[in-house]
């Protein structure tokens, strides 16, 4: 471990997982927690593909939940180096296989996954760099933010079982989310919110609407932007955010929404 690295303890549902991180790597965040909440609690005997594994928090959690095999694919060199170390730290080498690559490139189609976790970049490049969320060497979501996610949804059906599920995030207020949802519907027959059931959401909205608390809804992950963040964004975008962006102001504070979507019943195209 170098002087730049540190060990953090990331709280999941039932445990705190120690992982090694450093300033050049992507750290687990609120989206990571949302994935952990959305995933099935018992993954015993499952084969999991963790695409965009980062430093390995979701791969490790899947292994601790009983997954038989986890294939962790990560393109960024610094992330990958820490991913390998963190797998070793938890003695999970027999369960988690790391790959420094992109999408499903190192994975053979013959053994399809029960679940695909796809925490790939979905933040537009200018936005991500202006706020310093993505260290140099960690890829962003591209110029518009949706390119990587749409490409992943196009490729994923060949690697997922007919009964399997894929989980992925959308930065709803930062890009044209319909581009991603359209790609999901073109490649999967069932697309739904992964963080709460429709019944739970309706019950919650009925109660929350009376208290004007809709921005805290359980179907979204909310991120607050500080005044300094807003200043940096205005500079980066020459004073005007793109029309596809919708930074929401609630009680004098600025927020953007993230969401975890699940898709199933893949459509295999010839």
Walk me through what this model shows.
There is one protein chain. The protein starts with 5 loop residues before the first strand and ends with a strand. With 270 residues, the chain is α/β, with parallel strands linked by helices. 29% of the residues lie in helices and 26% in strands. It has helices at residues 30-38, 57-64, 77-89, 125-131, 147-155, 177-187, 198-208, 227-236; strands spanning 6-11, 16-21, 47-51, 69-73, 96-99, 113-118, 160-170, 188-193, 221-225, 248-250, 253-266. The model has no long low-confidence stretch (mean pLDDT 89). 39% of the residues are buried. The strands form two sheets. Strands 3, 4, 5, 6, 7, 8, 9, 10 and 11 form a nine-stranded mixed β-sheet that branches. A two-stranded antiparallel ribbon has the order 1-2. The longest helix has 13 residues, at 77-89. Helix 4 crosses helix 8 (227-236) and helix 5 (147-155) runs parallel beside helix 6 (177-187). The protein has a single domain, classed as Vaccinia Virus protein VP39 (Rossmann fold, 3-Layer(aba) Sandwich). The chain has eight helices and eleven strands.
């Amino acid at each position: 471990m170098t002087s730049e690295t540190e060990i953090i303890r990331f709280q999941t549902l039932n445990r705190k997982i120690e992982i090694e991180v450093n300033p050049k790597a992507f750290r687990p965040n609120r989206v990571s927690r949302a994935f952990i909440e959305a995933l099935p609690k018992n993954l015993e005997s499952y084969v999991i593909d963790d695409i965009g594994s980062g430093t390995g928090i979701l791969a490790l959690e899947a292994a601790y939940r009983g997954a038989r095999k986890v294939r962790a694919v990560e393109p960024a060199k610094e992330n990958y180096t820490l991913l390998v170390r963190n797998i070793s730290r938890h003695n999970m080498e027999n369960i988690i296989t790391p790959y420094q690559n992109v999408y499903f490139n190192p994975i053979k189609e013959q053994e399809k996954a029960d679940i695909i976790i796809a925490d790939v970049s979905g933040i537009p490049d200018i936005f991500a760099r202006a706020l310093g969320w993505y260290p140099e060497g960690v890829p962003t979501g591209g110029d518009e933010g949706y390119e990587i996610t749409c490409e992943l949804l196009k490729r994923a059906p060949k690697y997922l079982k007919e009964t399997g599920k894929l989980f992925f995030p959308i930065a709803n207020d930062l890009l044209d989310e319909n581009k991603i949802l359209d790609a999901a519907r073109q490649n999967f027959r069932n697309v739904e919110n992964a963080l709460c059931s429709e019944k739970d959401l309706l019950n919650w909205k009925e109660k929350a609407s009376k208290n004007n608390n809709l921005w805290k809804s359980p179907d979204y992950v909310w991120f607050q932007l500080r005044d300094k963040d807003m200043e940096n964004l205005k500079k980066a975008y020459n004073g005007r955010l793109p029309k596809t962006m919708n930074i929401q102001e609630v009680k004098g504070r600025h927020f953007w929404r993230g969401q975890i979507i699940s898709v199933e019943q893949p459509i295999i195209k010839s």
